[in-house]
Amino acid sequence: MTKNVLFYARYSTDRQNEVSIETQIELGKTFVADRGWKLVETYADSAISGTSFTSRPGIQQLLAHVKRERIDVVLCVTVDRLSRDVEHSSKILKELNYHDTAIWTVQAGQEISHIELHMRSTLSHELVEQIRYRTREGMKTAARKGTATTRLSYGYRLGQQRDANGDRIKGLREIDPAQAEIVRWIFEQYANGVSPAVIADNLNARRVPAPEKKYWRDDTIRGDGKRRSGILHNELYVGRIVWNKQNYRKNPETERRTARLNDKSEWIVTEVPSMRIVSDELWARVKERQLTTLENFSRTTTNRLNRTHRPSYLLSGMLECAECSGSYAIMAKERYGCSNHKSKLPVDGLGGACCSNQKTILRKNLEDRVLSCLPAAFFGMGVFDDVAGQARRNLAAFVKNEPDERQRISGELKAAELEQRQIIQQISNRAAEGRPRLAALDDMLDQLEERRAGLEARLKQAPAEEDFEEKIKKLKAEVSPEAVELILNSAFYYMREHADSETKQPFINIVRQFIQKVVIGKTPGHQPASLEVHGRIASILAAMEAATIMEKRFEALKQHDYLEKMRAGELDTEQKQKKLLDAYAEELSVKRLEWSNIQVSVVAGAGFEPAAFRL
Ligand SMILES: [Zn+2]
User: What is the number of domains present in the chain?
Assistant: First the structure.
């Protein structure tokens, strides 16, 4: 059957080895011709990254076309042509789905299922990673050529030389004499034993403009020995450029960009004597002093490591001050407070003033308030509906394949009747041949008759064949948004009410995936601090493997039950304890079977913006 086809091509400049629009269109034309389909129209977008949607006129025109004419297939070369963003794919998908238009790709040679499309656009995050990698590679090559431009270090300014056309030659730098003076002064001070904090205070007092930020801070000067960041570590001051020391990537848990040190073998060192500000002698003195303070340095590093190994609290690392955007951290015993407020450091965002948010909040209190708001907030965003819908679809597929009880019995009945007929045939054959009757054959015939009668009776009692529609209706009632909400609610309930940390622990990671950050704000007098919870809604669905959640809930329930029985003295012997644990294990294995049919797939729906809701 012929199909009406729209072809869509996209070219983005941010990818190397990109297939040109012309090539994509050629591939599409051949594909359509090979199948005897009809190419109705071709749409294309160029030089726009796949992640922006509204600025792609081609795809918009394509969707408009689908609305006005019957289109069977939208074809593109690969799935990531459509979009490299889950949310935008969903938008496109919804439209096409509504008009019964299928998506095909030349690459797959077949229709792409909606779930697959979702998953592929999720997977193309990998692509983003690849681009990042390529950019780094490109930078390396540029560094070898000596033309790369990265951030301008303190002490330098852009070169003012112009080429024959009078255009400023890009990428050139030169020493800024005034800043170079400050750099040398900082090196001298430090080599003479003055601490970076005192140096920073001195510079601020003299109103010396700081690099990037408004004020000098001790770490601007001291930096990080390992990463070799900070003024005292900058090798450009002795005429050396070290490239590719670290790379940045976004931590998916915290959404923060974190710097990671590259292996030393990946570093690229170029000598640029014209950039030298500090003498080798002064540099050496500074290095010497850094070594003697290395002991302090490694102590703080160890502390930092220890901190990451400590079991994290529910909201560790997610708390932000509403006033200064600094972090809220445990201050006094079990109380969170703004770190910047406590340290009284000038904050750039506040024009150099100190943060005045003095609100502190008890950890337990904060966790309770955040947890109690989550289920309701999800409900408002239709998450339960989506999860329930997905679960229902999976279950419906399962129901479809399940053999019917009546069908099974009548199958067995037919087999028994066939066997009966064969034995009767044997008996009459023997009689015709004048051979004596065999008791064994008679017995078999009796047994078969008994079985046949039994099956017939069961068939009569078997419930009338259930309508598929009926089954789905029942399923809808069972797997409803309300049921999902109930499951989530109980998870949060256990987080709140059963404070023993062992019961809580399995939930911490689940709940942490739902929350992006919590912003804590000032309120007058003794009123409790204001909270603003930012949810990471897209990842909720990813975390929403219902089976896993139910298993955790089951575990929590049983653990609680066990502890209660323990406290009540019901489990006074090892034997009793073991018996109960075995019973749990058995129950769990049965339940697991049930749950394995309610897998919710890892697909984020459209419209799940990270949203904020207030408490
Ligand atoms: Zn603050």
Answer: 4
